Amino acid sequence: MDFFKALKQLDNEKENIIITYLTGENAGSKAIIADDEIAFTTNCNIDWNSLLSLLSSSKKSQMTVNGEQKIFVEFIRQNYNVVICGAGHISMPVIKMCKLLELPVTVIDDRLTFINNAKEAGADTVMYEPFEIALDKIQGDCGTFFIIVTRGHRYDQVCLEKIIKKENAYIGMIGSRLRVSKVLDYLENKGISRDDLNKVYTPIGLKIGAETPAEIAVSIMAEVIQVKNKKSGRTVYDDELLNAVLNESYFNIPKAMATIVSRKGSSPREVGTKMVIFKDGTAIGTIGGGCVEADVRQKALSVIDNQESQLIKVDMTGADAEEDGMVCGGIIEVFIEPISGLSS
Q: pLDDT tens digits for 217-268?
């Protein structure tokens, strides 16, 4: 449990990396590296510093080999989230798509009726106040996607001027080329770097000939997905997973964590995807569903009983996988570890 408590306390301003031994006598041993320094370890007898040379310059989570032992290196990122400036007709389908994509979404608007519409559409957080005041309360980080779809270029200017100074994963702004040009020129005259302004995705959305609000929302979210997936390769320990481990209601239930550590061919989930499996067979999170999870759940129960980690291979190319609808045709390796063993 100490490992997960350490995760909760990580400084997200630092480059955080987790190294896990997958095989050998140290299987299951972990270390958290923060800016090249050991921040936490479950095994003080390992020379973790000697493994730093194995870290990938691509900063993508991946399995590698140290001598005869396999280790998994995870580059940690923050959760993704979406901030929408404006709660007009385009925002409504954007909110609904964010929910389908499991992206927490915050909506800002200074019109109560529109804010109520955002609530009904499923926004996780709504901020009923002027844009500049609300944006002062939002810090932004490398996982924040800002979508500016206000009702006029004056409000676009206010929003972009605030947002451009924040850390972000993406800034997109709606508007005709003329409207966008006026906003960018105005902000450049106020001293904002043109290089920074040129990083804004505008006019927002992929060029798919979108016309209706729903189609425009599709083009916006397609662009968000495109940008997000270019940043893939990093692992996230989301709040749902951490709560499954640390929340008092789950605390005393025997459990294990399954992590995809490698994949070949096509698979439904990326390397680093995690799932917590409880002794009663229920789970939080998913690593792909179907035969993948059925096999992993069964192995997880054995891991829970024996308190010994396992590295398993799941083949999604056979007839059994096809029967379960797993048409991906890939092979993944999954590391299953008893959570009660993750203490210092």
A: 999 999 999 998 776 566 778 878 888 888 888 878 899 999 999 988 766 6
Rounded to 10 deg, the angle between the 213-230 and 91-100 helix axes is 40
Order of strands across the sheet that contains 144-148:
125-128, 105-109, 81-85, 144-148, 170-173
Cβ neighbours for 7, distance < 8 A, ≥ 6 positions apart: 32, 237, 242
Residues in the chain: 344
Q: Within 10 Å of residue 61's Cβ, how many Cβ atoms?
A: 27
Which residues does the chain have with pLDDT short of 50? 319-322, 324-327
